[in-house]
What does this fold into?
Amino acid sequence: MARIVGNLVPEDDYPHEPGAESNYNESMYFNFFDPGRRVGGWCRIGNRPNEGRAETSVCLYDTRDASAAADGKVWFQFRRPEIPDNRAFEAGGLAFEVLEPGERLRTTYRGEALELREPRAMAEPRRAFRDNPLGEVRFDLEHRAVGPLYGRSGDAAEGRRAADQQFAKAHYEQHMAVTGELVLGDESFAIEGFGLRDHSWGPRTWQAIHRYEWLTMNFGPDLGAMVSVIQRDAGGESRSAGGVIVRGDELERIVEAEVEADYESNGLYHRAVHARVVTETGEKHAIEGRVEGFIPLRNRRGGAVTHIGEGMTRWRFGDREGHGLSELLRQVA
It folds into this structure.
């Protein structure tokens, strides 16, 4: 079993007993990128058992035709299917299975997804689903650990906040190797790549954080990284920055991080990302990312609008090049 860093146990890979909060959320998330075939994606199930529903997302990138001036194609689906309880991650045609806790998991999906040749159309979801075709997509992927499982099963400071001001008081991540099959319309891809998985549980309100940058990257089975910068308030007084560099089973924490982005003319859609980090040993690293596939998503609650920009990104770290995701959240209204 992969080494565990933090106060976690292997059983944390399974669903937990829900809290009483109306906005209790338990979610699993996986991303994967095959650099040779230039396809990848991510999927998420967020169980909200006290609301009787889940949130399911499937986002698949085909960047074979991407260029500096244009993205490739994105296949996207979002649903809120009903669920009876929090006993499984299975809803809306999407399913996650724990094969070996802390080591191997399986993700599967079979269903429709919106075929977006112009992914920015998702800025207006209703119009995007009206004006773009639905196509059949499916995947069957195995995710195998290539590094330790790191995180925490509870955060006392987060737990002291009101439920509607919490984002995830229990949370962990792990870098993975990913193999299997991906089918987009009438094309099939044998996937052999890398990615990251994420699991969190506790009250979740997307508007509880003013902004964040979350960068995930893999450079092979021996090297990965994650950079996170979270700003809870508009004034920047409550800010946390960190992450990890993973070299095989060894994990080195990032203790300082600065992230800047190059945006399109609207000042919101990012095209490139520049990260400067300092590790616990004092080493300094510069990481550069170029977005090859981008889709703007949003979450609405009580009149507030949250923008979440999702970019399939080509990363450079020293003399290594890899792929991953750049996810930037902003409160816009």
In short: The two ends are 45 Å apart (CA to CA). The first helix runs from residue 125 to 131.
